[in-house]
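Annual report, structural modelling task.

Input specification for the adenosine-5'-triphosphate complex:
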Amino acid sequence: MADANGLFVSFEGGEGAGKSTQIRRLAERLRARGHDVLVTREPGGSPGAEAVRHVLLSGAAEVFGTRMEAILFAAARNDHVEEVIRPALARGIIVLCDRFMDSSRVYQGVTGNLEPDYIEALQRVAVNGVIPDCTLILDIPAEVGLERARKRASAVAVPDRFEKEEMQTHEKRREAFLDIAAREPGRCHVIDAQRSEDEIAGEIAGIVDQRLGPSANIATETPEAAQ
Ligand SMILES: Nc1ncnc2c1ncn2[C@@H]1O[C@H](COP(=O)(O)OP(=O)(O)OP(=O)(O)O)[C@@H](O)[C@H]1O
Ligand SMILES: Cc1cn([C@H]2C[C@H](O)[C@@H](COP(=O)(O)O)O2)c(=O)[nH]c1=O
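The model returned the following structure:
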């Protein structure tokens, strides 16, 4: 479990599901309520892991075998955990992470055809006990998510090498995220990501407030603010 008083929330789902959008909105909401929030992402989130991200998402990684790729994702994750996430949680910070270990289970494990035992062993080393308290799986048909990602890419960036894969592969990933949610209902919440941004943000706010309990609204805990 996560350390000390912080809360560790990961966001998972296919390309263009709306993870970054919802992380931004949740961070704004939590900060407005007096919380200290860290927004981070994977692969990346620490200087070392960002360097690995650059390689993994570029054409250079096309010559890597799936095992090498999985090990690199795990190495980047361990650096991110030890350098950034664990220290933040120990200071009571709420950590919102765009993708985490479930992405490796799905992308390298299920669609990369790696044995579940191999992926799980790598994840144990990578996370070293730091498991999200709550994982929000943004669920959307692959076609809809990719269309969103394509529109965004034409405005800001080129698609990464994972976004270019077959539709069938993306659909298989959607099912794999749903399987994880079914196996770990205490940690995972499936969010229907085809709705409006406001509707999704409202549902996520409710889930996270519940996880935070009585401390959900620090800003209104002073007698003056409560009036
Ligand atoms: N609920 C929504 N309805 C319609 N469009 C949305 C919604 N949420 C996000 N978008 C738009 O879809 C695009 C993808 O959203 P976003 O970048 O948040 O997704 P993501 O899951 O982080 O994607 P990726 O995993 O590919 O980085 C953006 O242009 C965003 O503005
Ligand atoms: C953490 C993680 C990520 N991936 C893949 C999934 C995406 O296609 C990219 C990240 O791009 P994003 O725009 O930042 O979502 O990397 C993966 O294959 N395995 C992982 O563990």
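The pocket of adenosine-5'-triphosphate (ligand 1) is lined by residues 13, 15-21, 148-149, 151-152, 196-197, 200 (CB under 6 Å).
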